[in-house]
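<instruction>
Derive structure tokens from the sequence
<data>
Labelled lines for chain and fold
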Amino acid sequence: MRTVLPAAIGALDELALNLRWSWDTATRELFSTTAPVLWERVNRDPVAFLSALSASELEALANDEKFVSRVDRAAADLHNYLTQPRWYQNWSKEQSAAVPSAIAYFSAEFGITEVLPQYSGGLGILAGDHLKSASDLGVPIVGVGLFYQTGYFAQSLNRDGWQQETYPVLAPDGLPLSLLRGADGKPVLITLSMPGHRTLRAFVWKAQVGRIPLLLLDSDVHANDPDLRSVTNRLYGGGGEQRLLQEMLLGIGGVRALRLYSSMTGTPEPDVYHCNEGHAGFLGIERIHELVTQRGLTFDEAREATRAATVFTTHTPVPAGIDRFGADQIRHYFGGDNALDGVPIEKLIALGAESYPGGDGGVFNMAVMGLRLAQRANG
């Protein structure tokens, strides 16, 4: 449960939950100068900061006219930032052709702030900066990723100088996140069929990054079998099978989460899909499945339509940075009773088959599939 704020300073809640504060100096200073020692003690986390203030301290702030005025100014600035036209809106008016009304950006990591540790390094920081820049420019992006219960490991050194790794468990209710809920108030669930007539379910958490919604899928659902419940427990954790399940959830589940989010909020469905690294490559497979089953296209027609609206970028174009799975694994999860309608298993495997000199025909390469399902690629 989050702290209930006095009405006079109630806008602090929105200021804390919108991650724009992570790159807006004025908003951070509003929090940091209120109680500097406490601010540092909670590791500069606005949500934790508000929760740590006592009822009497909150009442004192609510009765401080100068502080209330600062809150009101910050809230007004955020409102203008979120609602006023920015570069993209002004630019789109000048274009004679239609421009995208929404763009989906898929990534396995998002480095927005240390408060939301869903990244390990450069790829995540790149993705986070991409969302921040898009927000400042007014580009209508929707981010799609996974919520990792333990994030990425924290490093420390023991007495002997050896690196130690710990995985602090994250409580999403204490983070700047909101759970996507239906009209009945119950959490909505994204589902994927698994072999053996099982189901992988996932919650959808939303982080607000300035103007940009970031949807994060979380497999920690009680109804899941224990092994499926732990699919998103760690960023890049577990073995090859867990990684494959993570990437199925990110790509296939991510597209389904977008569809659900659009229907619930009335926001446009994406016209363009940006796949940041091969981790999210299965998004193209889900879109082929949609086009075949919902619009009556053939597989080849759906593949070309998918390519026309997909951008693929790679951040780590070296073997160690590319996920590769056995073709037998792909057959297990995408064949037989678990096959996606309209996506023949052999055509799916062909999309990811390594074809460069020395490539192994029995290996399914996520980056190769991403390239083959994209209109263009950048290194």
